[in-house]
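re: the backbone from monday

yeah here it is again, tokenized this time
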């Protein structure tokens, strides 16, 4: 019977028997590592702050664009309401004049007389 792993198990077993040369860590090494991590943390915080400011600026720009679009829509609605009111007033005037003409000409249905032609 052969091992289906192709001998990889033997390599893993031999690695387990190796001893690692542990490096002695001094206080100076630790202090240097702490300073390095503090610098990385400061850089990460600065990058985060920059991203937050960029996001805030983008959000303000989107809100401003939405406000402009809303203002355009409100102006269009006002114009449509004005045109609707004007059409209603003209319709009312037309109905009044049609009624006045009908009263002045009894028997007329308000249409222009037709001539044989």
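seq for it, each position gets an aa:
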């Amino acid at each position: 019977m052969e091992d289906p792993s192709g001998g990889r198990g033997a390599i893993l077993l031999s690695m387990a028997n190796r001893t690692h040369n542990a490096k002695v860590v001094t206080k100076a090494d630790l202090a240097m590592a702490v300073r390095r991590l503090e610098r990385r943390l400061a850089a990460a915080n600065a990058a985060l702050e920059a991203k937050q400011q960029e996001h805030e600026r983008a959000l303000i720009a989107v809100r401003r664009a939405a406000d402009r679009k809303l203002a355009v829509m409100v102006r269009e609605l006002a114009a449509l309401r004005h045109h609707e009111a004007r059409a209603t007033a003209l319709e009312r005037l037309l109905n009044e004049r049609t009624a006045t003409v009908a009263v002045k000409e009894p028997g007329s249905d308000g249409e222009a007389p037709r001539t044989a032609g």
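Helices lie at 8-16, 27-104. Residues 18 and 116 are 122 Å apart (CA to CA).
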